[in-house]
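Hi L.,

You mentioned the student needs an example of a multi-chain input paired with its predicted structure. This one should do, with 225 residues in total across all chains.
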Amino acid sequence: GAGVSQTPSNKVTEKGKYVELRCDPISGHTALYWYRQSLGQGPEFLIYFQGTGAADDSGLPNDRFFAVRPEGSVSTLKIQRTERGDSAVYLCASSPTGARYTDTQYFGPGTRLTVL
Amino acid sequence: GIQVEQSPPDLILQEGANSTLRCNFSDSVNNLQWFHQNPWGQLINLFYIPSGTKQNGRLSATTVATERYSLLYISSSQTTDSGVYFCAVHNNAGNMLTFGGGTRLMVKP
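Structure written out for the whole complex:
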């Protein structure tokens, strides 16, 4: 079956602009996660959805970052007033149930965001 | 929060060689995954291994949860094994994965 997909694959924007990054999880997966990966580092958690609700947004760095998942499937990560420090690869993952002890997370190919 | 450390940070192998990658974590965990990030950036699941030993072809992994470490073994390495290997853990704090810094592997022909 299809894996996690993300669009766009690359996004170049100017400082101060607004961007939206999209994630399509594996069909039927109820849990969805966003991570951010800076060059040379491991991914870092941003936000976790269980269904339509954000169950944990403790990783969002500040209030310029926001994410939604209105119908419990596709999710959009929104970044306002982008800064050069936001440049990174944004990864989306999904898992079947979100159960802590048994779930495996499956990752998409990522969106590479460059803020000039 | 939980700390995850991987070693070595960089590894260069000749094709056909074997290697062991290590992941240490600072607290008890309920889930541990190993990933391979290929040169195109895709994270590929290798193992879900909170404890015990698993094998898949030339790869195997062992997690000793009571001693807070996991090992990934690569045998008869191939150039396609090149990339970055990440260990990531869940703990009681939440559903997110906490990643180590990765081991960057280059396999030379």
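You could point out the following to them. Residues 29 and 92 of chain B are 7 Å apart (CA to CA). The longest strand of chain B covers residues 83-90.

Best wishes,
N.
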